[in-house]
Amino acid sequence: MTALTYYPGCSLKTSSKFYETSIKQIFSSYGIEIQELPDWSCCGASAAHTVDDRLAHALVARNLALAEIKDHHLFAPCSACYIRSKVTNERMRQDKEFRKDINNVISPLKCLGTGEVKNIIEVLHDHVGIELIARRLKYNLSALKVVPYYGCVLTRVMGMDAFDDKEDPTSMDSLLWALGVELISWPYKMECCGASKTLTNKDVTYTLSNKIMDRAIVLGADAIVTPCPLCQLNLDLLSYLGRTEKAIPILFLSEVFELALFGKLAGSNSHVITIDEVVKKVKEIDK
Amino acid sequence: MNNLIFLKELEELSGENISSCYQCYRCTVGCPVVNQMDIYPHRIIRYIVLGEREKVLRAKSIWTCLQCITCSVRCPNDIDIAHVFDTVRKIAIKEQKAAEQDTWTFDKAFLDSVERHGRLHEIEAILRYKIEKKNFFEDAKMGMGMFLKGRMGILPHNVKDRKQLKEIFKKCGQ
Known about the structure:
Strand order of the largest sheet of chain A: 2-1-3-4
Distance between the termini of chain B: 39 Å
Order of helices and strands of chain A: EHEHHEHHEHHEEHEHHEHHEHHE
CATH class of the largest domain in chain A: Alpha Beta
Strand content of chain B: under 5%
Largest sheet of chain B: none
Radius of gyration of chain B: 19 Å
Number of domains of chain B: 2
Helix content of chain B: 55-70%
Number of strands of chain B: 0
CATH topology of the largest domain in chain B: Fumarate Reductase Iron-sulfur Protein, Chain B, domain 2
CATH architecture of the largest domain in chain B: Orthogonal Bundle
Radius of gyration of chain A: 19 Å
CATH class of the largest domain in chain B: Mainly Alpha
Strand content of chain A: 5-15%
Number of strands of chain A: 10
Shape of chain A: globular
CATH architecture of the largest domain in chain A: 3-Layer(aba) Sandwich
Number of domains of chain A: 2
Oligomer: heterodimer
CATH superfamily of the largest domain in chain B: Alpha-helical ferredoxin
Shape of chain B: globular
């Protein structure tokens, strides 16, 4: 198995630091080694491509070039980091003129687009696999009802195949199924949470995130599970955006693994919406 | 005859085959924020084909777009509509015709922070945006809430090779 270079991105060092803690915990439990990309920089997120396309690609290519030195796969848990890296990597590999231009911008670094970019769902499938996940369970999560929420960008990529279906992904469903939670099927797997409009047009984020929260509650879910830090943040902040009704917690995918492996969450204090009710439903497996 | 200059300009800048649109409305039907738009996505595309330059550049819709790419992925003609919108944004800003400044102001504040530190310094980008907007206290409660949960750092995270990073911004004309 190719070694993994971990590209945290800005979120996993600040607003979602507990996502990093959670990932590190479960990875070490499964024996997956990750090395943080040395001197990584921001991927530009949704801001860079709006202002300047070349800059957006160059910012990503800088990180890809640093990862290529190690010849590892680039593991990007944040959906925005993942999709930006994936898109630029593909173009660097295929488009000679483009590659020359971007490499000129990031010189003396050089990116060939020969590496692979992986998200957390892919890594858990490829490096652990559902069989091992199911065999290693320490806690019983069968009382926990969750809705899988992939977020809008994870599998939406133009001009190339995505790792999963672009309209109805199932890769996270199978991971959650292996963890033994009760999965609720719903049509909001890929609904947009409002993304970066939280500051520029709060009402948009409120309306979209609130709709997702309402639907999850109507369906009887105890928690919403997502791999995306921005989705987690926007939904978790709903009470600050204007929601007065009750809300259920938004867990990172890795946190459901934490519950199954350790029965508790290291980042419980970082959740705005309290996770107590969720942890109460976790039972020890009868031996 | 329609004025095809605008269509050509956008097709060249975006690299998208906009004229292949046959108005199936799929982009509009799937858009999560269409109810906030003044001109629906399929119409924006149509106006581009018809050469309605002013209408498109001044549309609020191009700034309402969340860049969630739902429309692009669903387009039967493989037009990356979100990218077309993104391209229109750049022209609208250049010609000072943008219907809304907030998205651009925030994106600039975000990138300024990345240029300075190499990584986003959230609180700095947010404060710069707030100062620009002069509504300093609007989201103070939310910021405080995040801070108390340890989700808003005070100090920036700097990359080591900041010189090279500044060079990247410079070469891209920023």
